[in-house]
Amino acid sequence: MTIRTLLILGHPNPASFNAALADAYATAAQEAGRELRRLDLHALRFDPILHAAYRGEQALEADLQAAQTDMLWAEEIVWIYPVWWGGLPALLKGFLDRVLLPGFAYKFHPGHLRWDRLLKGRTTRIIVTQDTPGWYDRFAYGRPAWRQMKHTVLAFCGLKLLSSTLYAPVVSSTPALRERWLADVSRLAKL
Q1: How far apart are CA 189 and CA 39, in angstroms?
Q2: CA distance 10 to 99
Q3: CB–CB of 36/30 below 8 Å?
Q4: Which SS3 state, helix, strand or coil, does residue 78 take?
Q5: Which residues contact 101 (CB under 8 A, 6 or more apart)?
């Protein structure tokens, strides 16, 4: 059975190491027989600002409508992005704000504290880079970007996290280490 995978690259630079990770993942996933769609957020045309919060109507651009279609199509969503200043890059955060809307990703029940997780039944993987060493991010900061993505975005919408992979510190990594990371991402794509 073929797995329908949506790969989302959240780095704004198409020449970044994150893009190389996405390329490696995509190639290996297709070699493994996965049906793959890919969203490179830097190439999409959309306003990343949710201007009226959730109090007003803001029409979705065609690229965001297509992104929602891809998310509904996918059985698995793979996110590749950097951690900057302990959080998600602005491009990815803006994408989440605009795409994971009430009625699409979740639905509140008026007068209750519960909600429906409308993307339930899908799995997800997170592949992240950062310049802060992983041990320091965990023990000094408490992994804020990971916690945000895992709990307040993915789980909130019903996505089940299969794995979270961190490559760090990128700033001091050698070419040989980056090659090992690319090979590791290729391996992950075949799981």
Answers
A1: 16
A2: 14
A3: yes
A4: strand
A5: 54
Q: What is the pLDDT of residues 94-128, one digit of tens each?
A: 999 999 999 999 999 988 889 999 999 999 999 99
CA gap 144, 94 in Å, rounded: 18
Work out the mean pLDDT of the chain and round it to a whole number.
Answer: 95
Domains in the chain, CATH or no CATH each: 4-189 (3.40.50.360)
What DSSP string runs through 113-132?
Answer: S-EEETTTT-EEEEEEE-SS
Phi then psi for residue 53, to 5 deg, are 55, -135
pLDDT at 1 over 80: no
Our CA angle for 54, 122, 160, nearest 5°, is 85
Cα–Cα dist 128/110, whole Å? 36
> 0.70 cut: is pTM over it?
yes
